[in-house]
């Protein structure tokens, strides 16, 4: 797998230069290699096209001794998806007292791999391992004024002060590990309960056990609280039999981060001709495990495994009019037409793969 195309923006900060931004284990290693030369002891690759984009998204690598000053985001949730390394988020009240923590590890560990942090809640990341790499998402546009540092938040400059802070909070866990608290609302949807939301691999086992019972062979756990939320995120389970009708999102990008399974992600022009095919798999597959879908581009995903689990994100609020279904692709209710169309797609994908 070759490294994704990037452009250097500033020391330690790169911007994806691909038409269809993607990320693989090769890119993870690139980020890690660049940490030592970064003045902040962290490096990042931004997947959003411009600072004004509605969804800010990046992969960021941390040195094990990186100091992350306690801060909060004004009226905006953000999420942190650990893909390599171990650590925890610590949460504080308005006076700087610790109110809780979430210990974090990669998807294959027994720890939560994902944490969604409500707006206005002060927090800091403590890294346990020699390094860590995460996928971060926040709503845009980017504005430094939306990140606030409370008066009690220490702006440490000396290495000894930073290390003392890290060691203090690394050794003070507050909350026991807990599974994600959620309720099932419909055949295809569960929703996490309010507050800090953390998700473990084991939390998704229920969805895997239920997906074959659903009519369309898909089920999802939404971590945003309402359709009006400005950042929508969900964990979606598909089966190998799931058909996703090609569609396009107007006015907003979306992204897919693969946790389990393999698939082909297909982009089309407005007439249904295949533009590009990106082979997807989990982080250890050697394939791209992330793809960002630009607004206004028709796309679909074709399952290549018995199960597929993804972390999907898009800006809110939800409006059905933002998603348009491809007029040249059949609805999932027409089984015969779907089978015929899938055969045609396979042929077109094969031609693209030969080029």
Description of the molecule:
- With 355 residues, this protein is mainly β.
- It has two domains: 6-170, Jelly Rolls, CATH 2.60.120; 182-354, Jelly Rolls (Sandwich).
- It has four helices and 26 strands.
- A hairpin with an 8-residue loop joins strand 17 (218-222) and strand 18 (231-239).
Secondary structure topology:
Elements: E1 6-10, E2 13-16, E3 22-23, H1 25-35, E4 42-46, E5 55-63, E6 72-73, E7 78-84, E8 87-92, E9 98-104, E10 114-117, E11 122-127, E12 131-139, E13 147-148, H2 159-170, E14 182-184, E15 189-192, E16 197-199, H3 205-210, E17 218-222, E18 231-239, E19 247-249, E20 254-260, E21 262-268, E22 274-281, E23 290-293, E24 298-303, E25 307-315, E26 323-325, H4 335-354
Parallel strand pairs: 2-4, 15-17
Antiparallel strand pairs: 1-2, 3-23, 4-5, 5-12, 6-13, 7-10, 7-12, 8-9, 8-11, 10-16, 14-15, 17-18, 18-25, 19-26, 20-23, 20-25, 21-22, 21-24
């Amino acid at each position: 797998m070759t490294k994704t195309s990037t452009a250097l923006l500033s020391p330690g900060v790169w911007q994806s230069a691909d038409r269809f931004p993607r990320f693989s284990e090769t890119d993870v290693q690139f980020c890690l290699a660049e940490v030592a030369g970064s003045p902040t002891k962290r490096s990042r690759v931004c997947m959003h096209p411009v600072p004004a984009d509605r969804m800010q998204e990046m992969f960021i690598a941390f040195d094990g001794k990186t100091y992350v000053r306690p801060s909060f985001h004004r009226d905006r949730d953000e999420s942190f998806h650990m893909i390599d390394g171990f650590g925890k988020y610590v949460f504080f009240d308005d006076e700087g007292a610790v109110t809780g923590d979430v210990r974090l590890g990669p998807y294959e560990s027994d720890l939560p791999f994902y944490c969604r942090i409500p707006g206005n809640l002060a927090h800091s990341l403590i890294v346990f391992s020699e390094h860590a790499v995460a996928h971060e998402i926040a709503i845009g546009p980017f504005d430094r004024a939306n990140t606030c540092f409370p008066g009690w938040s220490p702006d440490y400059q000396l290495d000894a002060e930073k290390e003392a802070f890290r060691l203090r909070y690394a050794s003070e866990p507050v909350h026991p590990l807990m599974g994600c608290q959620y309720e099932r609302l419909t055949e295809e949807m569960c929703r996490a309960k309010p507050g800090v939301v953390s998700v473990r691999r084991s939390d998704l086992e229920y969805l895997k056990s239920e997906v074959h019972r659903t009519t369309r062979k898909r089920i999802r756990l939404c971590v945003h609280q309402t359709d009006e939320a400005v950042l929508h995120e969900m964990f979606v389970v598909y089966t190998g039999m799931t058909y996703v009708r090609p569609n396009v999102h107007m006015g907003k990008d979306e992204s897919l981060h693969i946790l389990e399974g393999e698939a082909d992600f297909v982009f089309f022009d407005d007439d249904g001709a295949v533009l590009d095919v990106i082979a997807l798999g989990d982080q250890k597959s050697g394939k791209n495990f992330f793809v960002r879908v630009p607004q206004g581009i028709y796309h679909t995903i074709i399952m290549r495994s018995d199960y597929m689990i993804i972390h999907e994100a898009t800006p809110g609020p939800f409006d059905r009019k933002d998603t348009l279904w491809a007029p040249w692709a059949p609805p999932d209710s027409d089984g015969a037409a779907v089978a015929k169309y899938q055969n045609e797609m396979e042929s077109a994908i094969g031609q693209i793969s030969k080029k």
